[in-house]
Automatic annotation (TrEMBL):
The gene is lact-9. Pfam families: Beta-lactamase. The keyword Zinc does not apply. One of its GO terms (molecular function) is peptidase activity. This is Beta-lactamase-related domain-containing protein.
Amino acid sequence: MSWYTSCPKMLLGATAVAVPLGATVFRRESEKSENLLKIKKAKELVETTMAIQGIPGLSIAVSLDGKMVWKSGFGYANLESFAKCTGDSVMRIASISKPITATLAAQCVENGTLDLDEDIRKYLPEFPAKKFKNEDVKITMRQLLSHSAGIRHYATEKKKSETHEDPSNNNTETPEFLSNKPYNSSLDALAIFKNDDLVEKPGSKFSYTTYGLTLAGAVLEKCSGKTYRQLANQLFSDLGMRNTQLDTKEKIVPGRASYYQRNSKNILENCPEVDCSNKFAGGGIISNTTDLLIIANAILHSILSDSKNCLLQRETIRKFLEKQVPVDSKTSTGLGWFLVDGKDLKSIDGNISNSSFFYHTGAAVGASSVLLVNTSSGVCVAILCNLQNTTVLKLGRDIGDLFHGEI
């Protein structure tokens, strides 16, 4: 298996091939014709989804066996200037930030500075000791990364929906979700929730939380001696993810899309300005689909290769992709990812698909996203759009099935 990267120092041994970003590579001429048919069908799927959900702009990229086979943009990155959305448009990736944080945690595990099953207060003694129903409990990084630590999500009077279809698309209309208050670090952002009661007993069940990843980010800051920004930027640099960074409102970012929402009358409007420093580790990163495929394929290569020059060692990443707690009958959490057992899931053509995959969706102010990786087929799909409260997981699944299957 080959893997493309824009960063020469991440070449993966003699058998690996570096493919220029945006290039399309085919093993034989017949594949080109077949791929054109798949792209035509994929475009139809995207356009139908955008029409049904009223999405202003969408960017998508697909890779197969480490090689990009399709990248495109649809609609508009900015409705006021009629700037078109491209395959390189930069948008909020929202909760896809969580797998990135899990990758940073995996690196800390490998360098011996982090134990997934140790009480986090060993690293972060300033975090208050917790009780659940008067019982002393400990919180671990394993629990934080698998949404089973009992840390609350954004404060809301509504009970959040915990569904397989898009468990990250919850509580997107709360004051905390729309926060405009800056924080200097993940450690500082703990002030929002560190004194609140746990919502579940740690390790007992799935309870989706972005603040759990804020806490995980603070643990990483303490065990590494670096800020979350420094850790993330080093990862992006190592992988050649040149269009990926923490979401800061002051900085001018070339290619950044505008963000939209629908009001109570279903009319499109600009989203309010927000500050994402309360959730950098759980939902505060911006990127484009090309960069997302870089990290997806780096992880995929780590799973399949025994090379010592991968992003992560095979043993490490496979442990991060072990089932932790169930979400529903077909979905479990891994560490930073959702794992789907493809058995009995219907594919795009209505037939039964046995294709298992891991993924993460995202829901941010003015943005929705999905990053999906199918280990058995080698297909990775990244989708970003500039409208909140949309669902693109099914689109990602259908397009993944399309590029994996036969026309």
